[in-house]
Design a protein that fits this description.
100 residues; mainly beta; Sulfite Oxidase, Chain A, domain 2; 3-stranded antiparallel sheet; 2 helices; 7 strands; globular
């Protein structure tokens, strides 16, 4: 749901952020904060607890069957937080994830 109360259904393909981090041997604890940045320097924050919650936080490489593109073209990614009322945390053009 967006700020206007409108609901849109989309289908995403990707993986859970926790699994992507695990594959890179990066450990996240529930007490940490993750800062997610886009190519245009938009930033959103997540708690480690959210990232560790199964089925909650994903990195999507496709949306509605189409490749997520970077700002300059080519493969991009988008952060998706399921069940989140704050649509501002759906970071498009994902560039960096910092763990604090």
């Amino acid at each position: 749901m967006n700020g206007k109360g409108e609901t849109k259904h989309s289908e995403f393909e990707g993986c859970e952020l926790s699994e992507a981090l695990k594959a890179m041997n990066i450990t996240v604890s529930g007490g940490e904060t993750l800062s997610v940045s886009s190519e245009d320097n938009y930033t959103a924050e997540l708690s480690g607890a959210e990232v560790l919650e199964p089925g909650k936080v994903y990195i999507a490489l496709k949306k509605d069957g189409k490749m997520a593109e970077s700002i300059e073209g080519g493969q991009g990614a988008q952060l998706v937080v399921f069940g989140d009322q704050n649509s501002k945390r759906a970071v498009k053009h994902l560039k960096r994830i910092e763990i604090n």
